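User: Sequence in, structure out. Go.
Assistant: Echoing your sequence, followed by the structure tokens.
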Amino acid sequence: MARQQRFIDLTGYERLHDVERRIWYSPAAIVLGLIGLAAAAYTFWGLSRGFILPHVGYGVFLATYGLLFAYYFWYRFQRVKCPGCDQIMQPYVTDVDVSLNLKLVRTVEIGGRHYREPWAEDDRRPWVRLMWRVCACEACKTYVNCSRLYLETCTDEELAQIRQRVQR
């Protein structure tokens, strides 16, 4: 059974864009990104020259991609400190805001919440609610968007509303 995430309403909260920028463009992330780009360039260059070992560059590219993912989501966003009180921000989920252009993922909006059919082949849920994972400090009313989607299973009431909206 999936672990239930704590929900937070971010009305009145301030988004810390500068903290997000420091995480995304940290020196370690830039170095890993450059190594990954160099490995990708080496792979394409090796393939165009007919080298036997282009998979070495591909392996390095995949390794740096995995390291970047682990660095961001298992290390940096788990240890974000609030600049106001210097406490580690707690993880929450919140509804996707309207600033995100959701026409590309074809969502159904009902009451400020966004729903869609799951895009994974093995996901057997009929519809899911799109939410963001965020780290927030309730004392200082600040948050950082971790840029990861959280897909929550819809309730029966939500499914009934979605089916009414889709059948129109």
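User: And one key feature?
Assistant: The helical segments are 17-24, 27-49, 55-76, 156-167.
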